[in-house]
Amino acid sequence: MYKWLIISICFALSACNSPQKKLLEKQLNDKVEQVQQLEDQLTHLQNTNSSLLDRMADMSIINRTDAESIRGSISSLNTQFDYINKLSSEIERKDSINSMLAQNLKSSLIDINDDDVEISVKGSAVMVSLSDKMLFRTASSTINTKAYAILKKVSHIINDNEDIDIIVEGHTDDVPISNNNYKDNWDLSVNRATTVVRLLQENFNVDPAKMTAAGRSEYIPKTENSTQTGRSQNRRTEIIITPKLDQFFKLLESPELVG
Fold first, then answer.
1. Which of 44, 64, 89, 155 could form a disulfide with 204 if both were Cys (CB 3.0 to 4.6 A apart)?
2. What is the DSSP string of 60-113?
3. Residues near 116 by Cβ (< 8 Å), separated by ≥ 6?
C-alpha cells in the first residue's frame, strides 16, 4: 500500500515546479523514513510476539508435565497410605487376638499354681510356659496324669479359635541325660514336645495341622543353670500360640510400597 502511495506521489511531483518539488521530496523522504521505522517496529513486534507464543507453549508443556508428575505422586502416596492403613489394621487385629487369647488362658488356668504356669504375650505370640515338674516325670517324656487337666483347658482355647497355630517346644537344663531311654538333652526335649502334641491330638481333638513340635534342648535357658532353682526353671515346655498371619504376610509382600 505504501509503495503505491509513493508512486502516486512521484507522478504528482513530476508536475510540480522546482521549489515545490524539493519541499515535497523532503516531506516524501521523511514519510518514507517514518514508514520504514514503523515497518521495522512491526517486524520486531511480530518476532517478539512469536517468541512469546513459543515460550508460552513451552511453559504450557512444562506445566502439563509437572501436573502429571504431581498427580502421579499423589496417587502413589494415596496407595501407600491405604497400604499402611491395611497393615496397621492387621497388626491391631493380631494384637487384639493375642490379648484375648492370653486373657482366656489366664481365666481358664486361674486355679493352677503360678509357679507351674506362666502366660505372657511376647511379640506376635502368646506364650504358655509349663514347668517340668508339672508335666513330666523326672528325665522322662511320660506325661503326669495331673497335667491332663491343664492341657485340656489349653486345648479348648486352641479348638475355639480357628485362626491360630501352636508350636510346642521342649526345653531342658544343661545337665546331661543319664539314662538309656534318650541319647541326650536334644532327644529328651524333642520327645517331650512330640508327646504333648500327640496327647493334644489324640485326647483333645486338636487339629494336627495346627501344631508343630520342636526340641530346643538346653540352648535357650530362661536363667542361669548354676543353681538348682535356675535349672528347675529351665526345664519346661512352652506352648507358643500364634494367630495365623497369612493376610499379614501377604501385605508385607505387597508391591504397593515399591518406588
1. 155
2. HHHHHHHHHHHHHHHHHHHHHHHHHHHHHHHHHHHHHHHHHHHHHHHHHTTTS-
3. 130, 131, 133, 134
Among candidates 120, 116, 63, 124, which has minimal Cα distance to 96? 124
Measured from the Cβ of residue 114, the count of other Cβ atoms closer than 10 Å reads 9
C-alpha neighbours within 13 Å on the C-beta side of residue 80: 9
Helices (H) and strands (E) in the chain, counts: 7, 5
Q: Which of 87, 109, 105, 121 is nearest to 161 (CA)?
A: 105
Give 30-47 pLDDT, tens digit per residue. 666 666 676 676 677 667
Cα 217 to the center of its chain, rounded Å:
35
Query: Pick from 125, 63, 107, 209: which is nearest to 117 by CA?
Result: 107
Short-list 238, 242, 240, 213, CA closest to 124: 242
Say how far apart CA 98 and CA 126 lie, in whole Å. Answer: 6
What does the alpha-carbon distance between residue 164 and residue 147 come to, in Å, rounded to a whole number?
22
Interatomic CA distance for residues 149 and 116, integer angstroms: 13
Cell of 167: 508350636
Identity of the residue numbered 40: D
**What are 209-233's pLDDT values in tens digits?**
999 999 999 999 999 999 999 999 9
Contact (Cβ atoms closer than 8 angstroms) between residue 120 and residue 130: no
| Residue 61, φ and ψ in degrees, nearest 5 | -65, -45
Show the domains of the chain with their CATH numbers.
96-249 (3.30.1330.60)
DSSP conformational letter for 227? S
Global pTM reads 0.60
